[in-house]
Amino acid sequence: MADKGTCRGVPTGILFALETGKTVLLLSLCILLLAGCKERGSHPDQIAGKQTDPLRFTDSLGREVTLTHRPERVIALSASFAETWLLSGGSLVGTTSDSHTRKTFTLSEDVRTIGTIKDPNSEAIIALEPDLVLLTTEIPSHLALSPLLTECRIPHAYFHVERVEDYLFMLQACTTLTGRKDLYQTNGLDTLKGVERILANHKDPAQTNNRTYLLLRSYSTKIRAKGGDNMVSTMLDELGYTNLTDLHPSLLEELSMESIVWEEPSYIFVIPMGDEQAAQATMDHLLATNKAFAALKAVKGGRYHLLPKNLFHYKPNNRWGESYAYLAKLLAR
């Protein structure tokens, strides 16, 4: 891939789409983007000891990504992806604000914050002159960045991680770029072996055909049911249980107590969003004010669990085995 030149011809529609809801003038944004996409100095692969052969991999969208050198100025647009890159032996120049509250890794003081996970700052990204940007397929604002990054000749890759296999797919791509295949073994294949061991040894003591669970996301002001398109459901499905939303899809739109009471799920799991104490307070309020929910057998029988964010909201990465073990232990009670 050639060195980056000036960021010419950025479509007006793209710029406005990226700045939806902001009051930044088009002229000001263009000036910032042009400044950020200025000509670089000597090509990195001209430096002694650097990778000289092109590095190629396919991302989760099926896009072939090509880099001319091992990336040294990487931006990750989520805490989970920031950690994956660090586990691959890489370093970061920028990431989103959620990375600073993640408790499983620390960032160096010179790593810049480039907005939030749902609203990354395109100007800040361009200004850092990255040679790789890691994005998720799950957030519209990330997908909307691709045309701009392409125009500015910034390599970028999208990943979708909801299963341990998805994590391995991303980790393999990242360790290919860093040249640390040993870390793919340590933080990837060894993690998979741990998951397989837990699944093989899991014994469910349930004496009933009712092997259902209700999965909820608790916010500071609301509670929503989650379907099978997330990593917690994936793990519980592999452990032999069925999401209640598979039987009653309408629960995804409205949390109907009638359907929940009718099915009497064996377990209720809650993923806290945002502030964990606020999420806990929301669930406590539901228990105190909704007699039908409080009377559910899962609640009265101690099978109602608030899950830790580090293992079930954020991608667990090299701790997938801990996430499976945590759920298997709850199901074995």
Give start-end ranges of low-pLDDT stretches: 1-6, 8-50
Number of domains: 2
Query: Count of DSSP helices?
Result: 16
Any idea what the CATH superfamily of the largest domain is called? Nitrogenase molybdenum iron protein domain
The appropriate CATH architecture of the largest domain is 3-Layer(aba) Sandwich
How do you describe this structure in short?
By secondary structure, the protein is of the alpha/beta class.
Structure description:
- This protein is of the alpha/beta class.
- It folds into 2 domains: 12-191, Rossmann fold (3-Layer(aba) Sandwich); 204-331, Nitrogenase molybdenum iron protein domain (Rossmann fold), CATH 3.40.50.1980.
- The protein has 16 helices and 12 strands.
- The protein has a 5-stranded parallel beta sheet.
- The protein is globular, with a radius of gyration of 22 Å.
What would the keywords be for this entry?
333 residues, alpha/beta, Rossmann fold, 5-stranded mixed β-sheet, 16 helices, disordered N terminus
Task: Describe the SSE topology.
Elements: H1 12-18, H2 26-36, E1 55-58, E2 64-67, E3 74-76, H3 79-87, E4 92-95, E5 112-113, H4 122-127, E6 132-136, H5 140-144, H6 146-151, E7 156-159, H7 164-178, H8 181-201, E8 212-218, E9 223-225, H9 231-238, E10 242-243, H10 244-247, H11 257-263, E11 267-272, H12 276-289, H13 291-294, H14 297-300, E12 304-306, H15 309-312, H16 320-331
Parallel strand pairs: 3-4, 3-6, 4-5, 6-7, 8-10, 8-11, 11-12
Antiparallel strand pairs: 1-2, 8-9
Helix pairs in contact: 7-8, 8-16
